[in-house]
Every structure is written in C-alpha cells, then in structure tokens.
Design a protein that fits this description.
This protein has 408 residues and is of the alpha+beta class. It has 3 domains: 3-112, Orthogonal Bundle (Butyryl-Coa Dehydrogenase, subunit A, domain 1), CATH 1.10.540.10; 118-233, Butyryl-CoA Dehydrogenase, subunit A, domain 2; 234-403, Butyryl-CoA Dehydrogenase, subunit A, domain 3 (Up-down Bundle). 49% of the residues lie in helices and 15% in strands. The strands form 2 sheets. Strands 1, 2, 3, 4, 5, 6 and 7 form a 7-stranded mixed β-sheet that branches. A hairpin with a 5-residue loop joins strand 4 and strand 5. The protein binds flavin-adenine dinucleotide. Flavin-adenine dinucleotide (FAD) binds at residues 119-122, 127-128, 152-154, 212, 367, 370-372, 374, 376-377, 380, 393.
Length: 408
C-alpha cells in the first residue's frame, strides 16, 4: 500500500471533491438528473471502484477506506455517495470475489471509468422475501434465457453493468437455486441486449437524481460465461451472493451516517450565527443538549460502521459479518432520520425551505430504513441470529428451498 492509499489520504481526496459537490447537490435533486459531472471527477480521483484489486486496475482499498470516503461525500451530496458505494460494495464485491478472470477483466474497466453496477433482486411480488423471486434463468445450449420483472432497481437505465438475480433452471426445467448474471446495457452506446427493457422510472421522495427503475426481461439471452459461480454451488449460491450484499449494507449505513454528520455540521454553524432573545441560539441549553445527543448517536453509528467494515463473516468470508452489517445499517439509518430531522428543526422555518440543504437531506435520508433490507428485516435477522432461531425470513433461501424439497 503506498502513502496515497492510507485512509486519511482517501479522506482528503473525498473532502476536496465534496467541496465541489456541495453547491451542485440541489441541481441533481431539482432537475432529477444523474450527476455525471461528479462521477467523472470521482473516477479521475480513483474513488470509483477503489476496492477493485490493483491487478484489475483498482486500488485494492478496504471497505473501511470506503466508509471514510462515503462519509465525506455524503455530507455534501447523497446521490454521489450512493454511486461511490455501489461502485465499491455489493454487486461489484460479488463480481470481484466470485467472478473468474474473464468476468473481473470485463467489469473492472467499466466501473473504474464511472459505472455503478445495478443490483437486480427486488420484484413486485418479492420484496423483503427476496428468495420468493419469480424471475427465471433457464439453461439453453450455450447460456441462459432470463424472463421476469425487477423493480426499484437503483441506476436502472443509467448503469452499464446489471447483476440480475434469477431462479436457475436446468434444461429440463428443474430448479437449481438462485444465481446471478452479469448483463451489459449501455443505451448511450446502443448496447441494448434484446429482451432487456427499461419500463419506467419511479417518482421518488428523495435522492431524485437517481433513477429507480422497473426492468423487464423477455427472453434475455445471457452467455454462460456471464454467470457468477459462487463457492457453495447453485443450490446455496444465494447465501454467498447475499453475503457480498453485507458490504452494500455497510455502504448504505455509511451514506446515512455521512448525511447525518453533514446535517449536524450545518446545525452547529447555524446555532452559532442565529440570534434570538439577544443571544446566539448556541447559548440555549435545550439546543446544546440536542446537539450533544445528535453527536453521540452519529459517532456511535460511525463506530458500528467501522466495526462492520472491518468484520468478516465465517469460513474466511471476504465480506462483512451479517450481524455486524445489519446492526450498523439499522442503527445508522434510524439515527440519521432523527438527526437530520432535529437539524432541520434547529433552522426553524428556514430549514423547511430550500434555501438550506436540510429539507433535501431529510428527504434523501428517508430511504435508508427501506432500501437494501428494511429496518424490520434487519431486526429479524439480528434477533434470530442472537437467539439461534432459523427464521423463515432468513435471506439465504434455506426456508424456500427446504419447502420445495431442493435441500434433500
Ligand atoms: C430507494 C430504494 C432503492 C432500492 N434499490 C434497490 C436495488 O437497487 N435493487 C433491488 O433489488 N432492490 C432495491 N430496492 C428495493 C428494496 O430492497 C425493497 O424495497 C425492500 O427489500 C423491501 O421490499 P418491499 O418494498 O417490497 O416491501 P415489503 O417486503 O412488501 O414490506 C412492506 C413492509 O412490511 C415489512 N415487513 C415485510 N416482511 C416483514 C417481516 N417478516 N417482519 C416484519 N416486517 C416485515 C417491511 O419492513 C416493510 O415495512 C430499493 C428500494 C428503495 C426504496
């Protein structure tokens, strides 16, 4: 590791970029546009795909380094922070850890040039119960044919790489488990695979620069070389794939924590400058106590995220531990909603209007108890893990497969 790759060096790079991103953040929200300008700067600075191993052109940065970067970027621009996360954690982590040399060599340059892979799991009838997904990938002579619908796919229509999760069927239609396929889509370059349709974009509360899209696959043909081979084989492969998703959860929590830290900074500045009753607001003890509680909870989130980023699951897993990741995302996301709301409160009417970024941050941060595992599902995972219960909601598909007799 050279000097440039120390976490504090990453923080400095991120802070410099964040200073440029802050004045642009409202624009992406108001115009609902994707922040290509920021992405180009992130890619030039080596923060897109920084966790990609050096042999594939990345910087072999750790998840901890990424948390440091994400906090700084999220203080200024939630949208850009999401893009940093998804170019470094989650789908790309699955590809870089389970992919073969061809797959890694194929995907790394696309991400390093500014792509954030889209993860396609959720379906209209399979949200929290992801293992009830209906999309299928049926084996044909030289590959697989995918049919199904995915919705709420972050970056759908702007991402170039899509990691599509589907029930894998053999040529006779027997189900083998849930697998993942890499599909390249680039409307700008007319790379539009037959059978791949971007159906529509959601109109969202926050993070309005990020497309959340419904995608439909009608006989989408994928060459066998683009199927990810997971260590446990197809029957238990969904568990491997979702382990990679633990890193994405740490990333999502880090965005929430960064937005909260940014909102707290705004609030502290405002309390020092705004006068009422002949004094700065900062002198009122009621507000000082709020600041103290906000600071303590943001810092607790930060430490849980650091711990989760450095943790590893069982059996030499390269990904964060499921319990540490769930705990950190749960706490950071719930904390952020409260802290951003309290910061907005400190601005009075001004916080409610769009002269200040608080109203946007308030809308942006709301999603983190929903996307990437709801707060309730995270609590179920934590509780069942702590109590040693095999819960029907466990995400490795155990229940689903046991029910269908596939584990026999
Ligand atoms: C902004 C955003 C971005 C997203 N990006 C992606 C993406 O890129 N890729 C992708 O695949 N998906 C994505 N999602 C989808 C997300 O993963 C799902 O929304 C989430 O898993 C919940 O599914 P659902 O919305 O269908 O809610 P449901 O599963 O229908 O749940 C509805 C409510 O019931 C609760 N609930 C459900 N089951 C239980 C239970 N067993 N116990 C207690 N409570 C329960 C939930 O917590 C929730 O409050 C995104 C969602 C959002 C909002």
């Amino acid at each position: 590791m050279n000097k440039q790759d120390q976490p504090e060096e990453f923080r400095n790079i991120a802070q410099e970029l964040a200073a440029k991103f802050a004045p642009r953040a409202a624009k992406w929200d108001q115009t609902q546009t994707y922040c290509w300008e920021n992405i180009n700067e992130l890619a030039e600075s080596g923060l897109m795909g920084m966790t990609i191993p050096t042999e594939y052109g990345g910087r072999s940065a750790s998840f901890y380094d990424t948390v440091i970067v994400v906090e700084e970027v999220a203080k200024a621009c939630t949208l850009s922070a999401r893009i940093v996360v998804e170019s470094n954690m989650g789908g790309i982590s699955a590809i870089m850890n389970y992919g073969d040399d061809f797959q890694k060599s194929y995907c790394a340059p696309i991400v390093l040039a500014g792509d954030k892979p889209a993860i396609c799991i959720t379906e209209p009838e399979a949200g929290s119960s992801a293992n009830e997904m209906r999309t299928t990938a049926r084996k044909v002579s030289d590959g697989y044919v995918i049919n199904g619908v995915k919705h709420w796919i972050t970056g759908g229509g702007v991402s170039k790489l899509h990691l599509i999760f589907a029930r894998v069927l053999d040529e006779d239609g027997e189900e083998l488990g849930i697998g993942a396929f890499i599909v390249h889509y680039d409307a700008g370059k007319q790379i539009i695979p037959e059978g791949f349709t971007v159906v529509r974009r959601e109109n969202t509360l926050g993070l309005r620069g990020m497309p959340e899209a419904e995608l439909r696959f009608d006989g989408l043909k994928v060459d066998a070389k683009f199927m990810l081979k997971t260590p446990s084989g197809p029957r238990r492969g969904f568990a491997d794939l979702m382990s990679a998703y633990n890193s994405q959860r740490v990333g999502a929590g880090s965005i929430a924590m960064g937005v909260a830290a940014g909102a707290l900074d705004h609030a502290k500045r405002y309390l020092r400058n705004r006068h009422q009753f002949g004094r700065p607001l900062a002198e009122f003890q009621g507000l000082q106590w709020m600041i103290a509680e906000m600071d303590a909870s943001v810092h607790a989130s930060r430490l849980l995220l650091y711990e989760a980023a450095k943790s590893r699951g069982p059996n030499g897993s390269p990904f964060p531990d499921i319990l540490a990741a769930a705990r950190a995302k749960l706490f950071a996301s719930e904390t952020a909603i409260k802290v951003v709301s309290d910061s907005l409160q400190m601005f009075g009417a001004r916080g409610y209007g769009d002269q200040e970024p608080l109203e946007r941050m308030y809308r942006d941060v709301r999603m983190f108890t929903i996307g990437g595992g709801t707060a309730q599902i995270l609590k179920t995972q934590i509780g069942s893990k702590l109590l040693g219960i095999k819960s029907p909601q466990t995400r490795d598909g155990y229940y689903q497969m046991a029910k269908s007799g596939l584990l026999k």
